Amino acid sequence: MHRTSIIDAVQHEQRSARSVSRVRNEKDTAVTVDAEHGSWAAELAPRLAQFAAVARHEHVTRAAQELGVPQSTLSRAMARLEQDLGVALFARRGRAVALTPAGRTFLLSTERALAEVERAAESVRADADPAGGKVAFGFLHTLGTETVPGLIRAFRVEHPRVRFQLVQNYGEAMIDRLRAGELDLCLTSPVPDAPDLVARRLDEQRLRLVVPDDHRLARRKRVRLAEASAELFVTLEPGFGLRRITDALCAEAGFTPRVAFEGEEAETLRGLVAAGLGVALLPPPAVPRPGVAELTVTAPRAVREIGVAWLEGHPDTPPVAAFKRFLLAQRGRLLA
Asked: Alpha-carbon distance 140 to 158, whole Å?
């Protein structure tokens, strides 16, 4: 008898350590402590659909038939659910059941949760649909006027129902969003070199020295970058790929540019050049801009490489894989 009492006490202590206990103190009415379960969601989620089925049928046997599980299994699951929650969800009348007030409250939230899971499942299935799925695609501001619209237009000739979530940003911000899983692919420059990314060079774009049309160099067709070493520059902000390229080319030409203004958009810089605030190294404009002259830089070789990048090991949905193949096929003619 004594031995049995000890065993019962030990088992009770072990069960108590695993169960949900309520600890009361002077400030809090009740503090829930759960040593066994990581969260209520993880513990209850597998049983929510079972609970909803029983509530809908008000009969355990019919609910078990709908779910394709033994009636005894479903009965035990509902009893464990009530035990874990510490409330009675059903009033039982033989094999028929009726929801208690607590059960009706719990059912409302359960139905909302299950509907949200259903919507989430349908959303991700729709995004992965080969014919009408979604591609999250990032690109540089300077590629947004003609290059990216032309790419999407050409791709949708064969894939008219594919949807695009487009993000226009500077290179470092897009790489961050790529790593966070917010983008599937991005067009960027310089082409990134990082172990967690895959990047493929697609094309290169010549940069021009843009000067006001009344500048001392404006009548020239070609210029060495060193000839602009005494000029004020307007540039993109640090963090933009074109800014890094500008700084590197100026260093190669033997000088550090004196920066008069830092902006976020190339065409804004072109307008500021026209206003006489400085000179700039920029890619060609989509349409000619009055008030400026655009000079070919002969030395050093002033180009920027454009590439596509994606996260290493990230599985592609069919629409993403199709668009990736399409982009890689544009190698050498992306900017044509």
From this structure: 25
Instruction: Give the 3-state secondary structure of residue 149.
Output: helix
Q: Note the pLDDT of residue 130.
A: 67
Predicted pLDDT at 332: 94
* Structural element, H or E, at residue 57: helix 40-57
What is the per-residue pLDDT for 262? 96
C-alpha span between 174 and 188 (Å, rounded): 8
Q: What is the pLDDT of residue 164?
A: 96
| C-alpha separations of 250 from 104, 199, 293 in Å | 71, 26, 19
Distance (Å, whole) CA 226 – CA 252: 9
Q: What is the pLDDT of residue 43?
A: 64
Do 51 and 107 touch, CB atoms closer than 8 A? yes
- Residue 261: which H helix or E strand, with range? strand 258-263
Average pLDDT over residues 242-265: 96
Tell me how crowded residue 116 is: count the other CB atoms within 10 A of its CB: 10
Q: Are 125 and 154 in contact (CB under 8 A)?
A: no
Q: Is the pLDDT of residue 20 over 60?
A: no
Which tokens sit at 48? 């929510």
